[in-house]
Design a protein that fits this description.
The chain is α+β, with helices and mostly antiparallel strands. It has 4 domains: 241 residues, Sulfate adenylyltransferase; 92 residues, Arc Repressor Mutant, subunit A (Orthogonal Bundle); 90 residues, MDM2 (Orthogonal Bundle), CATH 1.10.245.10; 95 residues, Translation Initiation Factor Eif1 (2-Layer Sandwich). The protein has 19 helices and 28 strands. The strands form 7 sheets. A 6-stranded mixed β-sheet has the order 7-11-10-9-6-8. Strands 23, 24, 25, 26, 27 and 28 form a 6-stranded mixed β-sheet that branches. The longest helix is centred in the middle third of the chain and has 26 residues. It starts with 6 loop residues before the first strand and ends with a strand. 22% of the residues are buried.
């Protein structure tokens, strides 16, 4: 599921109510966890966030992160832990053990098939279909993959030990793992497990899959130290069949060979990316502009860890292979003078998985940038709303709306029109007027005051006036937020300090989603003047103001325009509202 890059649709801080809801969901999915364990998994004070992810297969799912490490991901109603969580807090869920060479197949997107599972000596535990589970490797009880069971124990008894055992959703070194701090698999030795595995290898060539239920007698061969490695790989492929050609045999590369392969792939892509570059180009510039940017996220090119050791040796090899031509145009400084784009190595590279994955990643990145540009073009959107108050709740109960329900002006008009038509309150003598019945009179007037009829506009004005004022703020890249009261203005004012010095103060930037510290830094560079961020005096809530030396209204106006803040929500830039105060 996460083998290919995915797109993050939203990433928001997890609120207290959302933490409680997540705790309840985890407790329901994993009832064996104690209250203390749940508090450790989902702490109240630690940094947590929730993300909406759009996968390469066009599936939308939710991911929960603790300290930037993903810990749970939810697909529809299924909540599964990540390998990061299982390394820190084993959840005592079902696990299956496999051989180390199977990990590469799982990482490639395959599911765990029955022949790839090492059967436990004590027999299979009871399990159902779609039960959360994880996969470990022989000799290490740390999770390397997470998924759900593809069959139940009863299915295995009835149909035999064949087919798929685990549907894999998440695997070590996939893109969900890359989202975290990229910790390597910890070594957690299980002494009992190791003794049993050693005993099986030394004293038996075969192991019966289920000792508890004697009805199954499928036999899985264990690896032998003297066995041919190619045959060993053939015995434990995850599709349950022996491969018929050498391409299906997994080759384990050393770290040096992996770096050589990464270096060659990145260099081939860099040559293709630089096909229109003006030659000659310095090797250093080529590396920084083209070579290193082609490296996949989560990996790093390090020539010292390759077999070449030095970049000059690598470039000499690339020249021998006919990919480039390198010359020393000035003493001690090498430049690339030619790129051979019709080289056979480049033609083979274009068909490789590395090239295909990079192309897909670039397409996703382009879509993400286009979406971000569209959202940023809209700017901050503010909409005036009304909530049902205690005085108007009786009227809106006619439409099954309770106190606190939020409505726009058009929705209020729609409900009033519907009510007037239903009760036939339009004045026959003048259709511009509405006759008030007892319900409308009680809603619009205090006791003892009333009118027999009102114009449509006056009726709507009185009704919205009796409701509570609120507003909706939509900041690009974030979900809309509804707040009580009217929208605050950004206030720009000038104060005079001692020695005839003046400072410009900007308040209420947070209401429009502007980071005050970042705004102050940008203003400092734009205006070439010192800035500071201070708490707003006299406010109980956390609110900050930005202070800049001198009269900087022109620079502030340009910066607020860049954030696409509507001018009607800014006070102090037109000169009329600008206040000069002495302190």
């Amino acid at each position: 599921m996460f083998r290919k890059p995915f797109k993050i649709r939203s990433n928001n801080t997890l609120r207290g109510s959302e933490r409680r809801k997540l705790r309840e969901n985890v407790s329901k999915s994993y009832p064996m966890l104690t209250t203390e364990a749940l508090s450790q998994l989902i702490p109240n004070k630690e940094e947590m966030s929730v993300m909406k992810i759009f996968t390469h297969n066009e599936e939308i799912l939710t991911c929960y992160c603790l300290k930037k490490n993903p810990i749970f991901f939810q697909i529809n109603t299924l909540l599964l832990p990540t390998v990061y969580l299982l390394w820190s807090y084993p959840c005592n869920i079902l696990s299956f053990q496999t051989f180390p060479n199977v990990l590469a197949i799982l990482a490639g997107g395959a599911d765990l098939m029955f022949p790839g599972v090492i059967p436990p000596k004590e027999g299979l535990p009871h399990f159902n279909v779609n039960q959360p589970c994880f996969v470990t490797l022989l000799g290490n009880s740390s999770a390397v993959a997470v998924g759900v069971t593809a069959s139940s124990k009863q299915d295995i008894i009835n149909d035999g030990a064949q087919g798929k055992r685990v549907t894999i959703y998440h695997c070590y070194q996939d893109h969900l793992w890359l989202l975290g701090d990229r910790t390597e698999v910890p070594l957690m030795l299980d002494i009992t497990m190791l003794l049993k595995s050693t005993d099986n290898v030394e004293h038996a060539d075969v192991v019966i899959v289920d000792d508890v239920d004697k009805s199954i007698k499928n036999i899985v061969e264990l690896p032998d130290a003297d066995r041919n490695p190619a045959n060993e790989d053939k015995s434990y492929t995850t599709d349950g069949e022996n491969p018929t050609n050498e391409t299906e045999i997994i080759e384990e590369l050393s770290p040096q060979e992996m770096m050589d392969k990464l270096l060659l792939n990145c260099f081939c892509q860099a040559v293709l990316d630089a096909k229109k570059v003006e030659l000659p180009i310095l090797v250093s510039k080529f590396s920084s502009r083209y070579l290193h940017p082609t490296c996949p996220e989560g990996q790093r090119i390090d020539v010292k860890k390759s077999s070449y050791r030095k970049m000059s040796k690598f470039l000499a090899d690339m020249q021998v292979k006919g990919l480039i031509e390198v010359k020393e145009l000035s003493k001690g400084v090498e430049s690339i003078t030619k790129l051979y784009l019709e080289n056979e190595i480049l033609k083979e590279y274009k068909k490789s998985e590395f090239a295909q994955l990079r192309k897909e990643f670039q397409e996703l990145k382009l879509l993400e940038e286009q979406d971000a540009a569209k959202k940023n073009d809209k700017g901050v959107e503010i909409r005036d709303l009304f909530s049902v108050s205690a005085k108007t709740v009786t009227f809106f109960k006619e439409f099954e709306l309770s106190k606190g329900a939020v409505l726009s002006a058009s929705e209020v008009r729609k409900y009033v029109t519907e009510y007037v038509k239903k009760q036939q309150l339009t004045d026959p003598a003048n259709k511009m007027y509405v006759r008030l019945d007892p319900l409308l009179t009680d809603t619009l007037y205090e006791r003892g005051n009333y009118e027999e009829r009102l114009p449509w506009d006056a009726l709507l004005t009185k009704l919205t006036g009796a409701m509570n004022i609120c507003h909706e703020v939509t900041i690009p890249g974030h979900d809309p937020i509804i707040k009580k009261g009217r929208m605050d203005f950004i206030e720009v004012s000038i104060e005079q300090r001692m020695g005839n010095k003046k400072v410009t103060i900007i308040k209420n930037l947070e209401s429009f989603g502007i980071d005050t510290k970042r705004f102050a830094q940008e203003l400092q560079q734009t205006a070439a003047s010192s800035t500071s961020v201070n708490p707003v005096p006299g406010k109980n809530i956390t609110s900050e103001l930005v202070l800049v030396q001198g009269v900087q209204t022109n620079h502030i106006q340009k910066m607020l325009d860049a954030h696409k803040i509507p001018r009607k929500y800014i006070k102090g830039l037109d000169g009329k509202d600008l206040k000069k105060k002495k302190r």
